[in-house]
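Entry 14. Ran structure prediction on the chain below.
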Amino acid sequence: MDAKSIVESYTYIEPVVALGVLAALFARKQIRNILPLSLLLGIVILDDIAYLVLHAIGMYERSIGYTKDLPAYNIYFAIHWTCYALSAAVTYLLIRRLYQLALEPLAGLQHLGMIVFRWVAVASVLIAIFASITPKVTPVEFIISAATQLQRTQSIMVLCLLFFLTCTAKPLAFTYRSRIFGVGIGLGMIACNDLVQSAWMAQTASFYTLYNIIKGVVVLTSMMVWIVYYALPEAKRGLVTLPVSSPLLRWNDIGVALGYPETHVVVTAEGRPLFGESEMEAMRVSQSKAAFNTGHVA
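Output, structure tokens:
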């Protein structure tokens, strides 16, 4: 069996395995809880079905002798690269969702992370756009380059998230059997593959190479990991207990302070606060207690 036959066989197997992951998510009632993963699988299925349908149409076009500027190929090109860019955007949402789930007990740190994620997303898009602009770039080359740059930046973010989950699993009271970690493992495998792909695509235009065979194995293995993690019962998450000197707790306090509105005081026409010192102190204590309760750690 040659490389072309092996790569094309993955196109038949991949949507079936993706449907298996969706079935496992549905059985565990996790479709909405981790919606970005469901959307990512949907994009994979759409891309594969588009390839199978348009490939069949392209074969028919060749059989009748129509070989110049095949419409089927042009349509698939647009669909494939649109799905490629969408998968990068949805993967960002999945990274964000995993971060939220991992830091649920630490509301302040979770809030702080969301702020960082927003700026990183904006920076990633701007880098992808400006890095793709060259003096004589064609629209097609711009689309391919921008999508590849976007995929590369989100792959780096995935690997950073996986490193974070590995280092903080014990302090955040979830084990390596947790579904948070399982989804992170699968994403990490795909991210490593995509980083290699972004370099490989610049060297060859062929879809039927040894790399694409390895890519198919990596993607299918990642999906199988997700099926196993969602098919098996999840280990119950314990209580988060942090020492007073823990950096996580300190950053959580900072996040709570940034996310909690300050108390406003009415000032009289003479420039003095309407309330006395005792009332002002009571307000400050009340605000501190409220902020503490918002980011309370069990």
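The chain is about 70% helix and 0% strand. Will compare against last week's run tomorrow.
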